[in-house]
Structures are given as structure tokens and as C-alpha cells.
Specification:
Blueprint lengths: L3 H8 L3 H21 L5 E5 L15 E6 L2 H14 L4 E5 L12 E7 L8 H11 E12 L5 H18 L7 H7 L3 E9 L3 E7 L5
Parallel strand pairs: 1-2, 1-4, 2-3, 4-5
Antiparallel strand pairs: 5-7, 6-7
């Protein structure tokens, strides 16, 4: 049985083409909005093909990780095309990060925690490596609070899960809170299916 990483390795060759209609219509502007908030030393979880790279503010230092070597190859190519020397790409599983505690000023994920096999474990790792007082930026799609809006998500679920191991029906906002983050702001970008969630790691008392 294919793991999600193997599915993304295989799909990496056409991934950008597959997502291009959504990217042009909406996702690119969502990314620009989310990434404008990044500061300092940044960890991007699930960097994929590097679609966020053009939107980072000047002066940040970015470490991007992904569990798919195929996706990282695409991201490396995009990094070189953009001439970015402030970005480092690493092959790493979000559920078992090889970083010390409390080292990043900002953690970023965009459309990632629908795919991480154990989202709570991955989110707890994100919490662990974020500095106290640091900011986590989550641009994610998830289950709606509306039963009506969930109908197409349920219809898409078997196809998307088979293709990429992705679930459109995770309750990601609740998972973020379960991992220990304090949610500071939630902005619904496409109804409440796509949300921009800004969270923090509370400072120790």
C-alpha cells in the first residue's frame, strides 16, 4: 500500500498543473495574505513544490521541510529560479522533526494538515519547535460547520484520499487547539472550508 509520501512523489511531476486552476483563481492571493505575516526564522511545514516562496517578506530566513523527495526537487528548482539564498530545504517528516525545541519565530503550513497522517502529532511537533510567543500561520482547508457545504467534500473524499491520502473533512482548527496553540484570529477565505488561522504559543508563566 502506498504511503502519502510515495503518492506525492509520484504526483509531483504534475502537481502544479493539477492545482493551477485553483491557484490562479484564489490560492495565490490566499498565500500572499498568509505569508505577509511571517517574521524572523521561519519553518514551513510541507513546503511541497515551493509555491509559497515568492510571497515571503524580505529579511526572513526560511527552512522548508517535506516528506516527499519528488516535491522537494520541484521546490529546489523554484528556489533557484527565484534566486533565493535565504531558503534551506530539508527532507523531513512533520510528525518527527529533527529540530531542537523553541527555535523558530514563525511556523507556516498551507494546505498541509489535511494530509499529515497523524495531524495531532504533527501539530504538537510544530508547537514544540516554535518559540514561546511565536506565531503559527495555518492556511488550511477543512470540514465546514455547514452540513450543506460538507456534501461536496464528502463526495470528493474517496477520490482525493485515494489519489493523495488527503482528507477534506478534518477538523483542523480544533486539532490546532488540541495541540496547545492559542488561536488568535480566524478568517474564512472560502466560506469556512478554507480558513486562515493565526495562532500563538503562549509564553511560559
Amino acid at each position: 500500500m502506498d504511503t502519502p509520501a510515495k503518492k506525492y512523489d509520484r504526483f509531483s511531476k504534475i502537481y502544479d498543473l493539477f492545482e493551477s486552476p485553483m491557484e490562479m483563481r484564489a490560492f495565490s492571493k490566499y498565500r500572499k495574505k498568509a505569508l505577509s505575516l511571517a517574521k524572523g526564522k521561519v519553518l514551513e511545514i510541507g513546503i511541497g513544490t515551493g509555491k509559497n516562496l515568492p510571497y515571503y517578506p524580505e529579511g526572513v530566513e526560511v527552512i522548508g521541510i517535506d516528506f516527499s523527495r519528488g516535491m522537494l526537487e520541484k521546490a529546489e528548482k523554484r528556489k533557484k529560479e527565484l534566486g533565493l539564498d535565504n531558503v534551506k530545504l530539508l527532507y523531513m517528516d512533520a510528525q518527527n522533526m529533527e529540530f531542537d525545541d523553541n527555535i523558530f519565530d514563525t511556523v507556516v503550513s498551507t494546505f498541509v494538515f489535511c494530509t499529515v497522517p497523524d495531524p495531532i502529532k504533527g501539530l504538537k511537533e510544530a508547537y514544540r519547535v516554535l518559540k514561546p510567543g511565536g506565531t503559527a500561520i495555518f492556511l488550511e482547508h477543512m470540514k465546514s460547520n455547514s452540513r450543506f457545504l460538507n456534501i461536496p467534500l464528502y463526495l470528493m473524499e474517496p477520490f482525493i484520499k485515494t489519489l493523495l491520502g488527503t482528507s477534506m473533512l478534518r477538523e483542523t482548527q480544533k486539532n490546532i487547539e488540541k495541540a496547545g496553540f492559542k488561536v488568535e484570529k480566524v478568517e474564512n477565505l472560502f466560506f469556512d472550508i478554507v480558513r486562515l488561522i493565526i495562532a500563538t504559543k503562549p509564553t511560559e508563566k
